[in-house]
Amino acid sequence: MSAIMDECSPSAVRASDVPIEDVDPGIKRQMLGYGPGIMICRVWFEKDAVGTVHSHFHSQSSYVESGRFLVHVDGEDFELNAGDCFYVAPHQDHGAVCLESGVLIDTFSPAREDFLNAGDPS
């Protein structure tokens, strides 16, 4: 485990203090609270932005804070609106197309070390 994963985010996180990064065209991400076993991120999508289908070993649960999304999980497609959520088991293919600009709140277990190391030049 990297040194960064040995640390945790502060007990209280003010979103205004956390940088927002561009991750894909029309998609921005903000990593909020995390520790080795869990991470929560806010992800903004512009209309028509695509979260490409992918998989990872983490469990993921995502809450639709706002907007409308066509979500693909393990061969099934769901149209989800604000207040809805979806779960992705480890290694399941998943992705999303934003139908109406919005925000997903993604929770991962364990934390996404690859997100934390994304800006690390080493």
The number of helices is 2
Listing every helix as H and every strand as E from the N terminus to the C terminus, the arrangement reads: HEEEEEEEEH
Radius of gyration: 14 Å
Question: Could you tell me how far the N terminus lies from the C terminus, measured between alpha carbons in angstroms?
Answer: 15 Å
Number of domains: 1
Overall pLDDT metric: 91
Percent of residues in β-strands: over 45%
In the CATH hierarchy, what is the architecture at level 2?
Sandwich
CATH homologous superfamily grouping: Jelly Rolls
Biggest beta sheet attributes: 8 strands, antiparallel
Number of strands: 8
CATH-defined fold name: Jelly Rolls
Indicate the structural class.
Answer: mainly beta
Low-pLDDT parts are 1-5
Tell me the overall shape.
globular
Helix content bin: under 10%
CATH top level class name: Mainly Beta
Show the helix and strand layout:
Elements: H1 3-6, E1 21-24, E2 27-35, E3 38-45, E4 50-54, E5 59-73, E6 76-81, E7 85-88, E8 94-109, H2 113-116
Antiparallel strand pairs: 1-2, 2-3, 3-8, 4-8, 5-6, 5-7, 5-8
